[in-house]
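Q: Here's a chain of 121 amino acids. Please give me its 3D structure as tokens.
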Amino acid sequence: MGLKILDVLNELMRYDDIYACMVIEKGMGGIIPDKDKFEKEVIDTWEVLEDSINETFNVIERFSKKGLDKMFFELEKYDVMFFILHESNMALVSIVPALSNRGLLEVAMENGRRKIIKIVG
């Protein structure tokens, strides 16, 4: 199962504007591709991004069972996109440039989420 999810993540990483992508939960546990595949500038600010992502899971835990489906926030020069895996405390998360074509990336992320949900069953 983990390898199939990793395949979906690697497929998403082929988009030029997806700098990092992972399926994670609070505490940053989950499935994260090799960080060598992440854009270098994301790695340079990883600590700040990781803290903010981890804090966002407080909101996800509180509201995912009430229908929270997606969350977005902008931090520094990045948009962080959360596509919650229905009724769980896990999410498909990507880090993209703040000025990217968000509509295109949302479609790609939604398709990735659907694939992951099928894999998880």
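Q: Can you summarize the key feature?
A: DSSP finds four helices and five strands in the chain.
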